[in-house]
Design brief:
This protein is of the alpha/beta class. About 35% of the residues lie in helices and about 15% in strands. α3 links the parallel β4 and β5. α5 runs parallel beside α11, α6 packs across α10 and α13 packs across α15. The chain is globular and about 90 Å long. It binds pyridoxal-5'-phosphate. The site of pyridoxal-5'-phosphate has 14 residues, from α6 and α7.
């Protein structure tokens, strides 16, 4: 800490101004001889004092604010952040004896990231506990606790924790026996992991178009793409939006297809009151750092089927027999989650209601501010039976304006992320395309806005101002 931010309570206004001149913060924290905080004075307070008749040789305590805001060492970034407002841009941080040990400063041009993990619950405590227990690999109480608590939260009987969302998808398809000669239907708009998992098994992916309204895989297109070789379909609940699970399950039933839900982006979303992840034969989650619940890297498969659960566990752990150690029944993988990752997951799940609420409040705030602007369309949140969650706030503009919007945001130090590039547009996947009319049109218009838990109303305004300038 630059000690020029501190000013003795016996100093004069002149001495305080000299400090402000050096610290370039427009503020001094007034302290006693032990650095104990007694007050705060800004250059504005000093100006008002001088105008009311004080002189440069008057004592600084004559202008210092009697009521001032500070933070304690150990308060979370979010707690500190909530103390800032239009007047308060700099806060002293004090120890248990009220001595100034640091300060926190709000900058109105602060970079707004697209996403940020929210780690202000017991993540550190449980992580340390797992570390100190020395169970730092994939055996340990946090793994079993995370598996059962996450599955329960999704309304499912069991979960198998894995190293990431991609391995979850690969494991699920492997456990279902998907392989060479099979076809698996995937949506054109998704992250590449969905189609890659199909390709890892040797099966052939079939890329189909998305719905105009929900942006998820189109049930009509699934049905058109079914052949005798179709073995499974992977509905992806995209950007927090649940797929039309009623129709998808109906089609899967009609043609005898497995359903592997990709829930990476929609933890907690519901269809007809039921959480996503509770419909398919196996559902897969990602806990990457930008996901609603994170474990750093991590994933989970959920299933109701005991036999499939056994298979998932077998393939996850090198295909090693449960009954006979070091006897390998199948060619398996090491797709296990560590106890350290799971410790973070257990803490994340404890705060999930709060996390979902602030995400949805943030989206609501964007919606209100964007509502009056012609030319910006937000992701739908009013579809029948679907209760979306907020993963990344997503908007669409005219395709000619999309890049200009994103550039305007970048110039204002605001991160923007373009829509997923349709799989059908990429050289390595193009040959698997069945249909892509809606997806290609939408992808040119869509982008994500910062959905970080550190964003306040003022910053939503900053983002919307950037958009308004362009559209
Ligand atoms: C739809 C979708 N599926 C799968 C994944 C893969 O998850 P992970 O990054 O944990 O491997 C992601 C995540 O990025 C995703 O968005």
């Amino acid at each position: 800490m630059d000690r020029n931010i501190l000013c003795s309570k016996t100093a004069t206004i002149r001495e305080a101004l000299e400090k402000i001149n050096l610290n370039v913060k427009g503020t001094v924290f007034i302290v006693d001889e032990n650095d104990k905080l007694c007050g705060i004075a800004t250059d504005g307070d000093i100006r008002r004092g001088l105008l009311s008749g004080l002189t440069l040789d008057s004592g600084i305590t004559g202008v210092s604010r009697k009521e001032f805001v500070y933070a304690h060492q150990g308060e979370s970034i979010k707690e500190i952040f909530e103390k800032f407002n239009e007047d308060i841009r700099i806060l002293p941080i004090v120890d248990q004896d009220c001595r100034v040990v640091d300060f926190s400063e709000y900058k109105s041009n602060m970079r707004l990231p697209i996403a940020q993990p929210q780690l202000n619950g017991k993540e550190m405590e449980y992580l340390l506990d797992a570390f100190l227990s020395t169970w730092i690999s994939s055996t340990g109480r946090y793994v079993t606790e995370f598996e059962s608590s996450f599955a329960r939260w999704c309304g499912m009987p069991c979960g198998v924790a894995v190293s990431n969302g991609t391995t979850a998808l690969h494991l699920a398809l492997t456990a279902l026996g998907v392989g060479e000669g099979d076809e698996v239907i995937v949506p054109d708009i998704t992250f590449a992991a969905t189609i890659n998992a199909v390709l890892y098994t040797g099966a052939t992916p079939v890329i189909v178009d998305i719905e105009e309204d929900g942006w998820c895989i189109s049930p009509d297109e699934i049905e058109k793409a079914v052949t005798e070789r179709t073995k499974a379909v992977i509905p992806v609940h995209i950007y927090g939006q649940p797929c039309d699970m009623e129709r998808i399950m109906e089609i899967a039933g009609k043609y005898g297809l497995y359903v592997v839900e990709d829930c990476a982006e929609a933890h907690g979303a519901r269809y007809d009151g039921r959480k996503v992840g509770s419909f398919g034969d196996i559902s897969c989650f990602s806990f990457f750092g930008n996901k609603i619940i994170t474990t750093g890297e991590g994933g989970m498969c959920l299933t109701r089927n005991k036999e499939l659960e056994e298979k998932l566990r077998l393939y996850r752990d090198h295909g090693m027999s449960k009954a006979r150690k070091y006897y390998h029944e199948v060619i398996g993988y090491n797709y296990r989650m560590t106890n350290l990752q799971a410790a973070i997951g257990v803490a994340q799940l404890e705060n999930i209601d709060q996390t979902l609420a602030w995400r949805s409040n943030l989206e609501e705030s964007y919606r209100k501010k964007i509502a009056g602007i012609d030319g910006i369309e937000m992701q739908r949140n009013d579809l029948r039976k679907r209760e979306k969650v907020t993963w990344l706030v997503t908007v669409c503009v005219e395709k000619e304006k999309r890049d200009a919007c994103m550039n305007a945001m970048t110039e204002m130090n605001i991160d923007a992320r373009p829509f997923f590039i349709p799989l059908s547009e990429m050289e390595i996947y193009r040959k698997y395309t069945f249909s892509n009319r809606v997806s290609t049109e939408l992808a040119e218009r869509g982008f994500n806005l910062p959905t970080s838990y550190m964003i306040n109303e003022e910053e939503v305004d900053r983002v919307v101002r950037a958009l308004r300038q362009v559209v």
